[in-house]
Amino acid sequence: MTTAHVEPLELPTRLTAPPRLTQRHPWLLPAAMAVHRARRRTQWVRDAWSGRVVWAARHDDVDLPVRLKQHGSLLLRELDPDRMHLQHNKVTNLRLAASRMDGLVIAPGETMSFNRVVGNCTRRKGYVDGMKLANGAAGSGVGGGICQLANLVHWMVLHSPLTVVERSEHSFDPFPDRGRVQPWGVGCSIVYNYVDLVVRNDTEHAFQLRSWVGDRYLHGQLRTDVPPAHSFRVEAREEQFLRREGQVYRRNQIWRRVIDRHTGDQVGEELVRSNCALVVYEPDPGVDVIDVG
Predict the structure, then answer these.
(1) What is the residue range of 93's domain?
(2) Of the N and C termini of the chain, which has fewer Cβ atoms inside 10 Å?
(3) Considering the domain boundaries, does residue 57 fall inside one?
């Protein structure tokens, strides 16, 4: 019998830091969010005036000829019956957000901001209360659930030569893996306008995002005009559940392998992200949880 090698559990700063001021005094949160949003708006204006960033804003209903990546994400997860209405509301929010993203063209040299494209999700625009994840718990809020669209876009981008400039993830693992088709650790956290998914096109070719809501799935395609020389395969490695001081943490590494399209040979690989997060559910009995004290 062999024993898995376990590296020392070094928790990210966000999991070991003392509670933030807004966590100790939640009434300060609206003011803190207003400050963050003002800073991000200032940054957007500064980048635009300096010419350092050209934001992607053009939409085209005509598909670019090459479908580079396609993915479908299940709309409804089985949750407690008293929270399923938030799942159904999420579908409403995703339909609105996907319509804003659909057809976006990222031309050479342009940068896509998820928040700039989708905009602020308000009741006036038709958004409703959906599930939001914050501070290790699932709650509700206007526009809740649009992170699923950001997850989909990020997953497709990882299978392309586009460059991820900014991406934030949740600091905890909220759900078991039942029905999961993407590796844990590739999702995105979105808060308008300062927690964002930002992608830049450093290539010589245009890319186009298509997104729509079907009967059971949120659908997405990433299209381009010319097939790139390489394809990409994204996988999780070093997956472990660790228990320390009564709490369970999950960690892994997300790797991307680069494949030559003509030969099928792997020509490179890169570490995309090392993840470590607090698990806020009880792992299934079949999950091996390693006790590290």
Answers:
(1) 53-228
(2) N
(3) yes
